[in-house]
Amino acid sequence: MIKAIEIQNFQSHQHSVLDFAPGVNIIKGTSDNGKSSIIRAILWAGKNQPLGFAFKSKFAPKEETTRVAIEFSDDKWIVRERGEGINQYLTSECEDPFKAFNTEPPNEVADLLNFGDHNIQGQHDGYFLLQSSSGEVARLFNRIVGLDVIDSSTKKISSIVDRTKASVTNAQETIKKLKEELKQYDFLPALEKDMDKLETLLKEREMQRQQRTELLGITHRIDEIDEEIKDWDSWLDVEKEAQGLITLAQETSQVIRERDTIKGVIDRIEELGKEILYWQDEVDSFEFAEKLAVEVQECRKGIKEKGFIDSELIRLQDIENEIENFENKIEQLEKERKDLGILCPNCGYDMSEKL
Q1: What value does the CA radius of gyration of the chain take, rounded to a whole number of Å?
Q2: For each of the chain's 355 residues, which pLDDT tens digit applies?
């Protein structure tokens, strides 16, 4: 139990020391003389309440701390101290102060104090146990002797049992509800079989669709080949006539080349005639004249050949006229061939360019 208490700079107490007698102690006095501050000081030291620092005396210098020391009958003690840069507990059992703690005092301090709410009574509190109900008295005694653990354990167990029963009931209701909902899906196995059949049918339809597309492509190609055959039939109708024109054109080209050669000979003969006339005026000797006579004979022979050539030229003129007619006809056939636009059935090459 508490043997003595020392209070320094706590509310109205600048420095107060109280020695307690064994048993029950009563603090009395006139109002506003610090009776309740003593209780607050004990609670601050024992329970770290209140948490703020408003209880420091206003008259205390800033550098001084607020300090409450409690001494017990077994000569053990605790000190609660707070000030600028200081917030700690000191005990007789530990050399080092306790500085790191939360809202509750350290366990070592709580074990030394070993008192609760029933150990301190304020002036406005009811008479201890006399105004309490029988149940409150029983709970207090049970708590003092440790029987409250059994009561709290029983309450906790009952609470767990109640919650478990409620959970089981809810689970059973949920299971029942789910079973009812599952009945809505009894058709799913049959639907799964139908889906498998439908999937098979869809695959078969897709295969048939592909085959139909391929057949349409083949049919289209057959139509194209038929059109090409018709084009080739049209070309075969004019092939013989065109082939004759091609042969005639080749012969005409040969005649034109021969005509050009004959024209060259005629031009040479005319040049020789001019040279003969020139040299006739210049010939002074018989030998030269004889030589010229030989050349004249040759020239006369050439003149006779010229007459033959003239007749050939007339014939060539007729051939040229005939060639011109054939060329016009070839041009007409060429135009018709281009209009036909003959394509190779294998590679699509325009064969009209080769003809």
Answers
A1: 70
A2: 788 999 999 999 999 999 999 888 888 888 888 888 888 898 888 888 888 888 889 899 988 999 999 998 888 899 999 998 889 999 988 888 888 677 888 888 888 887 766 677 766 777 776 777 887 777 777 777 766 677 778 888 888 998 899 999 999 899 988 888 888 878 778 888 888 888 888 898 889 888 888 888 888 888 888 887 777 666 656 555 556 666 766 777 776 777 777 777 677 767 766 766 666 555 555 555 566 556 656 656 665 665 666 676 676 677 667 667 666 766 665 665 555 554 444 455 454 444 4
Nearest to 157 by CA among 165, 145, 169: 165
273 half-sphere exposure, CB direction, 13 A CA radius: 11
> Which spans in 52-147 are helix H?
107-113, 134-145
pTM score above 0.85: no
Cis peptide before 105 (omega within 30 of 0): no
Please give the full DSSP string across 298-323, using - where no structure is assigned.
HHHHHHHHHHHHHHHHHHHHHHHHHH
Burial class of residue 89 (count of CB atoms within 10 Å of its CB; 0-12, 13-18, 19+): buried
Q: What is the dihedral of CA 217, 223, 224, 230, to 10 degrees?
A: 170
Q: Is 9 exposed, middle or buried (0-12, 13-18, 19+ CB in 10 A)?
A: buried
Which residue is it, tokens 């009563």?
Answer: 26
What is the amino acid identity at position 76? K
97 Cβ contact partners less than 8 Å away, ≥ 6 residues apart: 88, 89, 90
Report the amino acid identity of residue 336. E
